């Protein structure tokens, strides 16, 4: 019987063995009181689950541990214990503990440190995520081969010295075909810079590295200054950016936006198709209604400023006379017509605030628009869905909602600013 794997059960980046032990005990107690979900999980995950369930009082803690381990993708409890201990040792930068664990279990070098997780990778790649250079040297000396993945993770996590170390361990290979996508996704200036130093290229014989552009423009990170700097590094290394308002926007180049406004006096009312929003990144434009927050298909530069957290550009647009109540385009089914205020109430910026990354829920973008005269009771209908990285799911329809109603009804509250909702109510929103 193959090991079952739950799509919903994965080890956290730093698993806690004590917590997992408690989970196993909880599972055992739930089975003995005939709790249906626990019984179903045990039957699915334990190789003799159905047989053992014929006499629940006889089920032992070891059985619950086995079932729990298999639900995490591990063949048994001992493998789960090994994963927790090895990851903890790497996290603590405890080289001696790593040596002891690997010495007793050399096969762990070639397996995912988190059992099923592919991103953080085997132990050497896991160590690269944290910049644990001496542990990397040791694991490489014992036969770890995931050098390329490890270097990519080090760049993605902004550990340039670790990237250089792995580059040396790998024999200083050519990086001409190495994608800059990893540090683009995390908006890592340091990671991008070190890859350029070692020979990575944004422009190849067949054109711009679109994988990197997809990850940079489609990133769910929000750090405008870092994004601007990375784009300028791309330009310094041969990227010839399109001369468009949206590319000037992505670069944070208000001087170029001034030029665009001089050319096109309608720029402050113009709406942009999603393919214009993501130049050179067609994969980001495949699903117009899926978004990291409020959709951007058919929106103005002010909507885009809220979506990408470009508050300085928003201030510039408003200073140049842009109407804070300018609406997005409306499609034949009547969806659209929302203002940038909607885009501040439900946004990726709010995700990071609610996720607990140290950003205050100050609703600064909502405050800006309200201070500049944004209406709290405009109504619009929105068709929206979440991107795959945020769980995906079906498109949902929110009909005839105000900005307050949009935030109250949106299905994933982690994208909603509670402070924005409070401000909208304070300003008479209904």
Characteristic key phrases:
single chain; 430 residues; mainly alpha; Serine Threonine Protein Phosphatase 5, Tetratricopeptide repeat; 3 domains; three-stranded mixed beta sheet; two-stranded antiparallel sheet; 24 helices; 5 strands; flat
Q: What does it look like?
A:
The N terminus is likely disordered. Helix 1 packs across helix 2 and helix 4 crosses helix 5. This protein folds into 3 domains: 59 residues, no CATH class; 90 residues, Alpha Horseshoe (Serine Threonine Protein Phosphatase 5, Tetratricopeptide repeat), CATH 1.25.40.20; 181 residues, Ankyrin repeat-containing domain (Serine Threonine Protein Phosphatase 5, Tetratricopeptide repeat). The strands form 2 sheets. It has a 3-stranded mixed β-sheet, covered by helices on one side. The longest helix is centred in the N-terminal third of the chain and has 16 residues. By secondary structure, it is mainly alpha-helical. The chain has 24 helices and 5 strands.
Give a nutshell description of this structure.
With 430 residues, this protein is mostly helical. It has helices at residues 17-32, 36-45, 49-52, 61-71, 77-91, 95-104, 123-130, 133-141, 147-156, 160-169, 181-185, 189-197, 210-217, 224-236, 245-250, 254-263, 274-277, 301-307, 311-319, 340-345, 348-355, 364-371, 403-409, 418-426, and strands spanning 203-204, 207-208, 290-291, 380-386, 396-401.
